[in-house]
User: What shape does this take?
Amino acid sequence: MLVLRLVKNMMPEGKVAKIHNYTAIYTQYTKIRLLTLELYVILITIVERWMFI
Assistant: This one.
């Protein structure tokens, strides 16, 4: 949090807003990727169980 405060003090408001937008987009993207990964793992486990039956 201290680093963010320092960056805010050094940069004008517009740039700070842009950085916040980028971080928000990045977090959403990582969440979506994690969800797809979880779904993929679930699919693989289901397929493996089917193969063993």
Remarks:
- DSSP finds two helices and no strands in the chain.
